[in-house]
Amino acid sequence: MAKALIRILVVDDYEPFRRFVQSAIGHRREFQIIGEISDGLEAVRSAAELQPDLVLLDIGLPKLNGIEAARRIRKHSPNSKILFFSENRSSQIVEEALSTGAEGYLLKSDGGRELFAGMEAVFQGKPFLSSSLSGHSEREQKDSGPSRKVGAPIRRHDEQIVGCHEVMFYSDDRQLVGKVAQFVGAALSAGNAAVVVATSSHRESLLRSLHVSGMDIAAAIEQGRYIAVDAADALSTFIVNDMLDSTRFLECFGKLIVAAAKAVEGEHPRVAVFGEGVDLLWKQDNPKAAIQDERLGNQLCKTYPVDILCGYSLDNLQDVADEGIFHHICAEHTAVYRL
Question: Residue 95: helix, strand or coil by DSSP?
């Protein structure tokens, strides 16, 4: 008698990861992809209709995040096993994801070597946790319930590293570009990587400044060690109804940081991250979201080997400085510069 296929629903808004899963699973006869979905609401509808055996589920999804989608899938397709497939390493996010009843949590950076082990374990009803999340497994072993299967006994070198999270307040764009060029240039010169989340004009000025300083920025871009994205575009992925979705924020920056770190040839890469999305939030009169952004930046420093520099125009802060919010911003950083 032929062995029944394991029917899989893949849910991820990042098309390259869907291609990776499709390519990997295509070589295994026991698995069959029955659907590829890019948003959380459609994932719930498709799971209810298709009743998949296994759902590979991202977290940072549009319309409905993966954690809430998992809760709804549980109601509409109770026999479907759920394996979260995300690059979010936050202990709070991992624990919240598993609290939905999902059987496993796999990091995308571990997917190349652990995807099939995770899928097979979860389908058999065995809990699974990505090997790089060794800290989570140690805590879970102290609980009364069964410990989750860990892909491999790997200890992260950067487990105890906490990066710097600095902020600068500037009065003109030349000061901003000069400081960011020093920050990014130092990282690239050391063989590390950089992620720049900035406006179009600042990205262009920064490229010119790095080139003038003698940096082979074209090579860094080609290698993938320099990644630049538009700040407004980035905000649009995790600001919903003027509120910051922390899950989508961490997923967005996690993908950028991991992609940049993978391009570094060194054994223990670090990534310099410059962001001025917070400044755009101030311009939009949304200081609460800006402060939440900064707090999540601190979480990124605890999760990834990163150093973060934020930039604020002093013109945007004049109206709120007397209200004490300026001091809240400073309190979220390890160093403050006023240019």
Answer: helix
The rounded distance, in Å, linking the Cα atoms of 264 and 87 is 18
SS3 136: helix
3-state secondary structure of 220: helix
pLDDT one-digit tens code per residue, 72-121: 999 999 999 999 988 777 777 888 889 999 999 998 877 778 888 999 99
Contact 140, 149 (CB under 8 A): no
Closest by alpha carbon to 129, among 100, 163, 97, 172? 97
CA terminus-to-terminus distance, the chain: 74
Contact 219, 252 (CB under 8 A): no
pTM score, whole prediction: 0.54
C-alpha–C-alpha distance, residues 243 and 224, integer Å: 31
d(CA 187, CA 211): 15
Q: In terms of DSSP H, where are the helices of 102-193?
A: 111-123, 134-140, 173-189
Structure tokens at 16: 């390259």
Q: Report all structural domains of the chain as residue ranges with CATH numbers, in order of start.
A: 6-150 (3.40.50.2300), 165-338 (3.40.50.300)
Question: Quick one: DSSP state of residue 322?
Answer: G
